Amino acid sequence: MSEKIHRSVPVRPSPTLEDLATAAGVSRSTASRAINGGSRVSPEAQAAVDAAVVSLGYTPNRAARSLVTRRTSSIALVINEPDARVMMDPFFAAVITGVTEALRETEMQLVLLMSRAGGDASRTVRYLRGGHVDGAIVVSHHKADGWTEDLAASGLPTVFIGRPWDTGLGIHYVDVDSFEGGRLAALHLAATGRTRLGTVTGPLDMTAAVDRLAGWNTGLREAGLPPGPVAEGDFTTPGGAEAAALLLAEDEGLDGIFAASDIMARGVIMALQASGRSVPEDVGVVGFDNHLTAPGELPLTTINQPMVETATKAGRLLLADIEDTRSNRDPVIFPARLVMRASTAV
């Protein structure tokens, strides 16, 4: 009986940095600088290394590269909210889409950190300061978490989506003009002839909610209307419904309500309908975000918040900050814009 002889096929070793340097005709240090994006590499040497990378099928050792460059090729997106809200609110889907777009042409990987509001924020800060990422984007920032101070002190490149509580620490941020959005909502409801107006705010430990409320009150004064009832919500649909019930208990004759998010506006409309009031015939409703597109729902008048564009800008600013820590720290503020739909029609 003949025996089959199995011969192993030799595995071709991966090309090393020395192999790359030899093929390109440059020194090992020049080859290393060329593949790591360093300076002091002539155009001719860079072209030779690039050609050798292709011909050899060279793949950089990322662990070794990290030791040399002190880079992880990762950034963190920190969301300080419960998991359920992040998964249900289209606001966060827009943020992730925008940041991903900013990284699309780079080798950066996105790390999602879910740091629950009211939880141990210091755990997240320790991770961010531990060298695991090259920078961080923080969204849904609450006053008590203390991240502005901790991250500013850490030196980690950081961009906030939404105004941080302390803007004097040099933290880069991108925001929509929430104050103007609240003001536009008040002026629009007044322009439709409504005179008894109330508002459902977001959590007042967040700058977005505070700014929208301040703009709302300014708009009421400009329209010559008295301050109406205010109820604090939580940027959820059930929270919007509960807050609307409180407004109606305070003033049954309300004929206009501004909710500081579209998700809460949905709850406001549900509460109004449950109380026998119709929208917009009895009560006009304005939201904030311009994210809801569910079929069959009443088209909502809202303040447009270009969240994808805002998050993309935040991502690009962070990439610039990582490359140059001396980059411009001026805030980027997107304008607010009223989008009129059926929920305030007259």
UniProtKB/TrEMBL annotation:
Keywords: DNA-binding, Transcription, Transcription regulation. Residues 15-69 form the HTH lacI-type domain. It holds the Pfam family LacI. GO terms for molecular function: DNA-binding transcription factor activity; transcription cis-regulatory region binding. PANTHER family: HTH-TYPE TRANSCRIPTIONAL REGULATOR GALS, LACI-RELATED TRANSCRIPTIONAL REPRESSOR. This is LacI family transcriptional regulator.
